[in-house]
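Friendly challenge for the regulars: who can give me the structure tokens for this chain first? No prize, just bragging rights.
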Amino acid sequence: MIKKGLSRLGTFFLYLVSLLPFWFLYLVADFLFVILYYIVGYRRQVVRENLLNSFPEKSAAERKILEKKYFKYMADLMMETIKSISMSAKSVNRRMICTNPELMEHYFGQGKSIIAAAGHYGNWEMACLSFGFLTDKRRMIVYKPQSNEVFTDFFNKTRSRFGATMISMRQTLRKMIEYKNELTFTVLASDQTPTLADAKHFVTFLNQPTAVFLGVEKLSKMINCVVVFYKIELIKRGHYTYTFVPLVEDPKQTKPFEITEIHVKYLESLIKEKPEYWLWSHRRWKIKPEDVH
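First reply, four minutes later:
Bragging rights claimed.
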């Protein structure tokens, strides 16, 4: 009971902070970067190890530059995520612009639903808000529940306040079957780390064997929907574009694991181009192939 009360107090504090203007929050972000990187060293060793394993061909000096760029962007992202709690529709549409919304209507016009593979790359939280304005078809965002239910519910309400429906990862299959006769737009993260029990397949991702979920592949084949990737690009501080990139138009004609390989490789190409915008502080490679029996 006390924990829930403190969590609710925390969410109320985050809401109050979100009311502050962007320019002030970016001043906070500049200060936060110094604290996280130089004083606290928040997961700095995790980031350092991930960068070393992913880019062994880069020099130590090059990886150090990437490390600092990442922490600088992470501080911005934290403040932008808090700001998204109270952002207006006008502000979202001004700061997160879809470059090709007509692609969605193109596929909907063919009677095809869409699954969008995504990564923890760029400001995925603001993109969730933007999805609410793209179409009048059902928009579903699949999420992985966190241990703190209060914060999970709070951020799900934030993400869905412009019309998207939040679906727990464990309920995805049931919901997709429930809405199979509707045209839908569903977003799934392609870089979530599965539990040991769910680690059924590994791909080579950023130079390492990586356990992956097969949800995008299984769901797209089940309802025969188009698979796209939504590519987020930072234009300037606090301003982004995202583009839907077609990956697979006829999933039932693909080989086993082909769709998974395609969307993972596409995310990898984005990360290699501008590594600092991916979530390097995540312990992505904690499950090894030898751990799976």
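The radius of gyration is 19 Å. Residues 47 and 281 are 5 Å apart (CA to CA). Your move, everyone else.
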